[in-house]
Amino acid sequence: MVTNNRQLEIMSKVKEFNDYRVKMNDKILGQQNKTLNRFFNIDTNAYKEGALSVKTKELLGLVSSMVLRCDDCIAYHLETCYKLGVTKDELFEVFSIANLVGGSICIPHTRRAVEFWEALEEEHA
User: Fold this and answer.
1) How is 54-121 classified by DSSP, letter by letter?
2) Which residues of the chain have pLDDT under 70?
3) pLDDT score for 12
């Protein structure tokens, strides 16, 4: 059982990440810079259903983000994967591929990814 303080801390982690992301994306996109807006659009469209499913694309995004060691990207893809119904077993297979390809430098990111996943689970419990 998670204590009330721990639950608030966990929920705060996910909320803080999402609030910051929305705030900063609004500022960036609000500048109406054609290049940046187009890049954001390409990113959004790349993850839409196509020859590969959205779930597969998000798992690919997660493994790539882990190998590139981008914690913000990892958190974003983790939350999207969670919403898409990715199982913990699928998640840990992604972690194994990321660590295999990226090497031991991915271990700290795997730790933080597991922690964020647990925050997502607690938030939705």
Assistant:
1) HHHHHHHHHHHHHHHT-HHHHHHHHHHHHHTT--HHHHHHHHHHHHHHH-GGGHHHHHHHHHHHHHHH
2) 1-4, 6-11
3) 83
Fold of domain 4-25+51-123: AhpD-like (1.20.1290)
User: Tell me, what DSSP letter sits at residue 49?
Assistant: S
**Hey, where are the domains in the chain?**
4-25+51-123
pLDDT for residue 125: 81
Assigned token pair, 6: 């721990």
pLDDT of residue 124: 83
* CA dist list (Å): 120 to 15, 23, 47, 114: 10, 20, 21, 10
Both tokens of residue 85?
A: 């119904």
Whole-angstrom CA distances from 86 to 5, 37, 55, 82 are 27, 29, 8, 6
